[in-house]
User: Which sequence fits this backbone?
């Protein structure tokens, strides 16, 4: 993680995502996503659109827990790859893992997409924020 302020912003985003799932509040959950990421799977075969993440999370009773120490910052913080546990709250255990791509929006971040295969999330990151000079 780059700095304490960035960590706080990311933690706040994941708290809002979790609250949306636990309270079955689709509008609150959707507010944490870019419009295109909520409506469309931008990652590929291992990914889901945000709407499907909401449907699965509320049905299966899980939330996404970020590993803040393992976040990769891209393009000076314009985007972040965040590894997450898929945490089943009734079973009190991780049931899967995914990586999410967050993109800078105003003073915070929004989820652009996510998936189980890191290389697919990295490919989305390159399409969203190509390296300097490309």
Assistant:
């Amino acid at each position: 993680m780059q700095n304490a302020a960035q960590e706080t912003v990311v933690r706040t985003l994941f708290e809002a995502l979790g609250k949306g799932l636990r309270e079955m509040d689709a509008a609150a959950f959707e507010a944490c996503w870019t419009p295109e990421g909520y409506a469309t799977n931008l990652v590929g075969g291992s990914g889901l659109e945000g709407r499907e993440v909401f449907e699965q999370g509320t049905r299966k009773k899980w939330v996404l827990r970020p590993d803040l120490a393992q976040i990769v910052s891209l393009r000076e913080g314009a985007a972040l790859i965040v590894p997450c546990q898929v945490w089943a709250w009734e079973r009190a255990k991780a049931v899967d893992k995914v990586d999410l791509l967050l993109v800078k929006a105003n003073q915070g971040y929004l989820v652009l997409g996510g998936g189980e295969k890191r290389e697919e999330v990295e490919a989305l990151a390159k399409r969203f924020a190509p390296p300097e000079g490309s």
